[in-house]
Amino acid sequence: MKRRMKRRKACPFSSGEKVIDYKDAKLMKSFTTERGKIIPRRISGVSAKKQRELAIAIKRARHIALIPYLKMD
Amino acid sequence: MALNEYELVLITRPELGEDVIQNIKSSITDFVKENNGEVLVFDTWGQRRLAYPIQKNKYGNYYLVDFVSDGDTPALLERHIKLRLGNIIRYITVKIEDDVEDISNTELFEARKEAAAKRSQKIIDRINAALTVA
Questions:
Q1: What is the pLDDT of residues A6-55, one digit of tens each?
Q2: Nearest-CA neighbor of B10 among B117, B72, B82, B68?
Q3: Which of B1, B89, B110, B128 could form a disulfide with B70 if both were Cys (CB 3.0 to 4.6 A apart)?
Q4: Strand partners of residue B61
């Protein structure tokens, strides 16, 4: 997929604008796809470190049934 | 042993009487106390629709418990929940902070309690806001 790189998005977490919290269902959901999969950081623009923390938080949120593991359409 | 601050989210099945919930609440609080800990916050998020059915339930009552204790207690507490408190269908314990001051230090302790209560209130506000929008 050769595509010109768009201007780098800023990571919404690194600036302190948003805090990663597994209890925040809306936030967790915003980083998952329609089918419930975690959005890759090359799409979301999240920094590497924060993406790791985000992934853990999303998995916790799934365990707590705040977001689904898989959504069928 | 060093004291740490933990956060426990639990889900119970939806139709539970007030007395059962009180029972759960005191069971957990007493358990933490017996293990040299102290519960800071025990909040209710209310009933929510689950993202997927758990033990055939589509809805569940969410609770948030914030407590301090030594390092062994969370595992023991989870064991206690698993064995004795069958109405709790899901739980997760997360460590919030390491090496917290002693309970006897009442000033700091009260401050920590307030911070925890504020944190929890923020979450409850967010949940209520989401509900009113929907």
A1: 556 778 888 878 889 999 998 999 999 999 999 999 999 999 999 999 99
A2: B82
A3: B1
A4: B12, B47
Q: Which residue(s) pair with B66 in the sheet?
A: B7, B41
Query: CB distance from B95 to chain A under 8 Å?
Result: no
Q: Which of A21, A26, A63 sits opposite B130 (nearest CB)?
A: A26
Burial class (CB in 10 A: 0-12, 13-18, 19+), A42: exposed
Residues of B in contact with A23 (CB under 8 A): 9, 64, 123
How crowded is residue A58: how many other Cβ atoms within 10 Å of its Cβ?
23
pTM of the predicted model as reported, rounded to 2 decimal places:
0.86
**How far is residue A14 from each of residues A20, A23, A33, B57, B63, measured CA to CA in Å?**
10, 19, 22, 38, 30
